[in-house]
């Protein structure tokens, strides 16, 4: 974990790659393209591309349909066969100077080729790379889909600002973000624990009882500040999830489910939104 993350100076927005691709993700995606697409379909820079082969047809499709280049300008050797070495050199040069969104366009294009003709593990390996490097995008059925929205990020950022008046709440929330956004070793289980602990802390502060727990505190808040019963029930259920799933608040059991990134993100966004909601309610 980097020092900036430990002291809360790296924001959630900075941790999630939305409008950019950093060098580490760029390199990882290139390796995935090379190893899990071109190597898998049999492209070898040390050998010629046989005419009328599936490899030749695939390279021609990429050259014409993705890059929009003239077919008679495709890189060839002295025997007039497609040169795999020159072709891959062209793609690599383009990839590393292309814009971040153009790289995603290329992933989409290759994923659709894979799904239609090859059925490799390319899409799965791309998503593993995207997930590991905290990209806000995934490949779903050949399309790039954003899985972290601007609205979700704003909700978390507002919660950090709103909770700054309550040190325990703010600490739990920052810790939840740190666990979630650690690219080297994300800890989704403890991110969920810290996020729900942030909600529990703010509820304890609102009711003025540090010895209570979330469920009874929410019942008091429901009556005193007129929050809807369904909201109280929803967060009581989330507390139950945090107590049961994956051994989050207790030791792990054999039949516990693994807490995924999607689980942790949902809890983090939901808890942030609820903290923002409670602050508005108690100020009325």
Overview of the molecule:
It is a single chain. With 284 residues, this protein is an all-alpha fold. The chain has 2 domains: 17-146, no CATH class; 150-283, Four Helix Bundle (Hemerythrin (Met), subunit A) (Up-down Bundle). It has helices at residues 3-6, 12-15, 23-41, 54-66, 84-97, 100-118, 122-132, 150-162, 167-181, 188-207, 214-224, 229-244, 261-283; strands at residues 137-140, 143-146. A two-stranded antiparallel sheet has the order 1-2. A hairpin with a 2-residue loop joins β1 (137-140) and β2 (143-146). α9 (167-181) packs antiparallel against α13, α10 packs across α11 and α10 (188-207) runs parallel beside α13 (261-283). Mean pLDDT is 85; it is low at 1-9 and 249-255.
Measured as a percent range, the helix fraction is 55-70%
Strand content: under 5%
Order of helices and strands: HHHHHHHEEHHHHHH
Mean pLDDT: 85
Output the structural class.
Answer: mainly alpha
Total of helices: 13
Distance between the termini: 40 Å
Question: What would the principal axes of the Cα set say about the shape?
Answer: elongated
Which residue ranges are poorly predicted, with pLDDT under 50 across at least 5 consecutive positions? Answer: 1-9, 249-255
Largest sheet: 2 strands, antiparallel
| Quantity of strands, as a count | 2
Q: What strand order characterises the main sheet? A: 1-2
